[in-house]
Every structure is written in structure tokens, then in C-alpha cells.
Amino acid sequence: MLKEAIEKIVSLAAPVTFEIDGYTYASQKLERIEEPEDRPRPLEVSGLDSLCKLICTEIEKVGTTIMIRVVSHTHVEVFTTYLKDYSRYQLYSARADVPGFRTGYREREQALIELRSLFLQGSGTEYLLGLLSRMSEQSKVDTLDNGVTQTVETVQGVALKTNENIKPRVALAPFRTFLEVAQPESEFLLRVNEEGDVGLFEADGGVWKLEAKQNICEYFQNRLSDLIDNNRVIVMM
Fold first, then answer.
1. Are 164 and 151 within 8 A, CB to CB?
2. Burial of 16 by CB count in 10 Å (0-12 exposed, 13-18 middle, 19+ buried)?
3. pTM surpassing 0.85?
């Protein structure tokens, strides 16, 4: 009796197909069992140079076209084209190990440190460092009605004070993408509040991100030119 009951339960559990209005339905969801296939786990690195070395060293073992996709200014993925079963191998990825830059207000001393450590040095950083060095702890800031142009009271020498118009926009190049490529320069809106804190805000609508991605693509095109010319490597954004 018990044996018959078990056999009945097993038979009820077996998948059954039905034909309804010309469509075939199954009582259970069926999945194809894939044959086991050895493949390496995706490898993540922090630099573009490492990606190029991996590709040049292992492309023969991959045995198919390799695709390089620049996902963002800090992220690159490398994978294969379609294999025979229309799958892809995720081979490598890279994420930029850069400090980045936070927009917003910061104290004068913090701004001085960041300008020397998080930016490429140029005319923009030179101007800001000079302005901040002339500002006193009690600097007075007057904002005009349009909310853009400002006048800040700065100190010259020991006691001489002057009113100085500050630039509303400053061109700066923070370290924001892979260090192997040129850091895009973009405009920042410069503000100083009543406490003397310095505010920097991106003013180019994020166009610098597109420039950074183009710089990354050019880097691969220069380093992997032979493989790209032979259609063994494809670079895209």
C-alpha cells in the first residue's frame, strides 16, 4: 500500500505538457542542463596598463574577438564576442583608483590642501591658491544681486586690506579618471560664503566625463593598434 502511494506521488510530480489553442504548456518549468565548461573567473585590476598586458598575453588562449567597453570615466569592461552558444565570457574589468573630488563648500585650509593634492597644477589652481592665501579668517564677502559675481575682502601685508573681485568660473583638472590618460579640464563655479568657506561646483554639465571616456578609448587604440587593425580587439564606449 505504501509502495503504491509513493509511486502515485512520483507520477503526479512528473512534468506534463498540454496543448491549448495551438500553444504547448508544461506543468513545470524546465531548464536545459548545460555541459560543464571550464572558464576563468573575471579578473579586476585598477589600471589600463594592466588590462593591455592581460589582453596581449592571453588573447591567443581566448581564441575569439575581444571587446573593450569604456563604461564610464572610472570603469572599463573586457569580454568576448558571441561564442557558439551565443554566450559571452566576462574576462577582465578595471576601476580607476583615483581620489576623486567632492563638489561643495569646504574650509579655507581644507581647500588649500585639496588644491595641492587632488588637482593637476595649472593657472586655475595657481589663481585659487593665491586668492586663498590672501584671505584672512575674518574676510568679508559681499554677493551682488545676480548671485554670481562676488567681492571678497583680502589682506595684503600686515594690515592693508583691499576689496578683490573673484572670478565666477575657474578652469580646473581634478584627478577623476585613470592616471594613464590626460585628466579632463572643466569649469567650476567658484563661490565664497560669509564664513570664508570656498565652494567649487561643476559648471560644464558633465561634458568632462565624455572627454575622459574618449581619452581612455584613444589610450587603447594606441596601445593595441595592431590587434585593433586586425579586428581582434574592438574598443567602444
1. yes
2. exposed
3. no
